[in-house]
Design goal:
Layout (H helix, E strand, L loop, with lengths): L10 H28 L1 H9 L4 H19 L11 H23 L2 H8 L2 H13 L4 H19 L12 H26 L5 H19 L5 H14 L1 H25 L4 H8 L1 H14 L5 H19 L17
Helix pairs in contact: 1-11, 1-13, 2-4, 2-11, 3-4, 3-9, 3-11, 4-5, 4-8, 4-9, 5-8, 5-13, 6-8, 7-14, 10-11, 12-14
Length: 328
């Protein structure tokens, strides 16, 4: 028996290759979003084993930085001193430190939804730093996202619709830093075109390590660091999880970079929202966390703002194609 279309030269074969070529980059971003939506869980496991959030973040970012240094060592000479790269390191480090700490100590979905207020911060930072107009479109998305956040956060008992605890504040800070990182990365691509794309990620992970060390005195300090070192040294399971998580983060970054280089910015931004779906399912299954009707409605407004920012692109506005650089 023969199979129709089994030859290598027919139109169907060409169409299949084209489909695979188009699907692979989108799948790469989808894989990255899935990893980010699950990353909160191993950090919580490490915390239960004595490796607090900040030391764990330093450790995993350090592993990722080491691997990227080895893989991209030939690109290191494209780095140049620039305050823009310092800003990328600062914004990226703040994003990751706040994101890891917030999802470890707070309600995963509330923290993540506050993180995804990114369109609000992107519009504002692009206006301040790039001179871009917010416009009616941007103003509408800002209103929609902020309205959703207010609906999610407001309650008669708590009064003003602002983050209710440190974990939620960390999620909001991470989202703002994420947006700042995207805007700065656009400036870097314009002002420093010779700096290789992988060196942006390398700079970001360096910022994650340095940022974690700077913040650690406020999260247990030396005692927390000693406890983490002791746990990693004495518990092979904890050390294995930390090492595997760091390697996964580095590999995910490489995979996502492949996708981002081949998928339009607006499409990439939409695919990245799959992280919320993965986080919602995983937090419900693994941590028994749920959302009420009002929180779901507010979250849907935030997600809608992110979706609309992707399907209603404005060529003159800040792209989000570099968003994958900012996540660990």
């Amino acid at each position: 028996m023969t199979v129709a279309g089994n030859g290598a030269h027919g139109p169907a074969s060409t169409s299949g290759v084209s489909l695979r070529t188009r699907a692979a980059p989108a799948l790469a971003i989808l894989i990255g979003s899935s990893v980010w939506g699950l990353a909160w869980f191993p950090y919580r496991v490490l915390a239960q084993w004595g490796v607090a959030a900040i030391p764990a973040q330093i450790c995993t970012a350090g592993v990722a930085l080491l691997l990227l240094t080895l893989v991209y060592r030939r690109s290191l000479d494209t780095l140049r001193w620039s305050w823009l790269l310092v800003g990328v390191a600062f914004a990226g480090g703040t994003t990751n430190v706040a994101f890891v700490w917030g999802t470890t100590h707070g309600h995963v979905m509330r923290v993540l939804l506050l993180f995804y207020l990114t369109p609000v911060w992107t519009a504002l930072f692009a206006h301040w730093l790039l001179g871009e107009r917010v416009g009616l479109r941007g103003g509408g998305l800002i209103a929609l996202a902020l309205g959703g956040a207010g609906l999610m956060l407001w309650s008669p008992e708590l009064g003003w619709p602002v983050p209710n605890n440190a974990g939620e504040w960390a999620g909001a800070v991470a989202g703002a830093a994420f947006a700042l990182n995207n805007v700065l990365l656009r400036r870097v691509s314009q002002a420093l075109p010779d700096v290789r794309a992988e060196m942006r990620s390398w700079t970001l992970y360096l910022g994650c390590v340095v940022g974690g060390l700077l913040v650690m005195p406020f999260d247990g300090g030396v005692q927390s660091g000693h406890a983490a070192i002791s746990a990693l040294a004495s518990d092979a399971g904890a050390a294995s999880v930390a090492l595997a998580l760091g390697c996964t983060i580095a590999l995910t970054n490489v995979i996502v970079q492949f996708g981002l280089a081949r998928v339009p910015a607006n499409q990439a931004a939409l695919i990245m929202l799959f992280e919320i779906v993965v986080a919602a399912i995983s937090s419900w299954w693994l941590a028994s966390e749920g959302l009420g009707a009002r929180e779901i409605a507010g979250g849907l407004c935030i997600v809608a703002a992110g979706v609309l920012s992707g399907i209603l692109p404005d060529p003159g506005r800040c792209k989000s194609a570099t968003a994958g650089d900012a996540m660990v």
